[in-house]
Amino acid sequence: xxxxxxxxxxxxxxxxxxxxxxxxxxxxxxxxxxxxxxxxxxxxxxxxxxxxxxxxxxxxxxxxxxxxxxxxxxxxxxxxxxxxxxxxxxxxxxxxxxxxxxxxxxxxxxxxxxxxxxxxxxxxxxxxxxxxxxxxxxxxxxxxxxxxxxxxxxxxxxxxxxxxxxxxxxxxxxxxxxxxxxxxxxxxxxxxxxxxxxxxxxxxxxxxxxxxxxxxxxxxxxxxxxxxxxxxxxxxxxxxxxxxxxxxxxxxxxxxxxxxxxxxxxxxxxxxxxxxxxxxxxxxxxxxxxxxxxxxxxxxxxxxxxxxxxxxxxxxx
Length: 317
What we know:
Largest sheet: 3 strands, antiparallel
Distance between the termini: 65 Å
Number of strands: 3
CATH class of the largest domain: Mainly Alpha
Low-confidence stretches: 1-8
Strand content: under 5%
Structural class: mainly alpha
C-alpha cells in the first residue's frame, strides 16, 4: 500500500492481490486516487475494482505484461468473451466506462502512452425503466403486524422511512441517530461522494420512528450504545444484504409476488411523488441525483401508465 496510509483500508483495496504484481500496483494507485481525490463511496470503489481487475485478469491470461500493448483488437476480444459469459450490455457498458477512467488515469500519470479505451463506444444497453410498486402494494408492505416484536418494529420502521424519503439502502442502514431531527421532520443524509443533503419525511414515518425509538431500539441494544438509528443486537448497523432479506420477507408476508428490492421502494417513492404533481427539481434534490436527467426517467413511467390506460379504455384503440 502507499506509504503513510494506515489501516483499516476499504475492502476493495485488498482484493486486487490475485493479479500479477505490476497490474495490482497500478490498480491500487487508481483506487487510492478514487478514494482520496474523487472521494467515491466504498460501494462505487468496489465496483471499479471489480470491473478493472476483471479486464486485467483477462489481459494477464493472454500473457500481456505491458498495458501499452492493449489495442482495439484485444478490447474487442474481451467484449466478445463477456458476451459469451452472458454478461449483459448494461454491465459491459459500466465496465467499459470504468476501464476508460482507469486507462485515462494511467495516461495522465505518464504510466502508459495512450488510453486504448478513449475511442471505444459503450455497448448499447438501452434504458431500463425502474420498476415501482402500486399504492395498494405499498400499503400492504407497510402494514404493521399485530403485536410486533422489537425486531419487527425496527424492520417495519425502516420500510416506512425508506418509502417516505426515497433513501438509498446504504444511506438507510448507515443513518445516524443524530441525523434524524424529529422536530423539523428532516434527515441529514450523507450520500454518494460524501455529499450531504437534507431529506424531509412525513407524519407516518415520524410516528413510526418515534415508536421504534421509544419501544424497540433500547430492547434490541440491551444496554449497549450505538450512534446508528437502526441497530442490530451487536449495536452495529445492519448490512445491506440483511436488509435485502428483510424487504423480501416482508413482501412475501404481504402477499406481493413481485421480486422486490430496497431500490424498488426508492423508485416507488419518486414515481408516486411525480404522479401526484411534485416538482421534478425538488424530487431530484431529495433523491440526491447529480443530474436531473436521472430523475426524469421516472416521468416516463407515468407516461407509460397513461398510454396503457388510453389503450385499455379508448373506443378507437
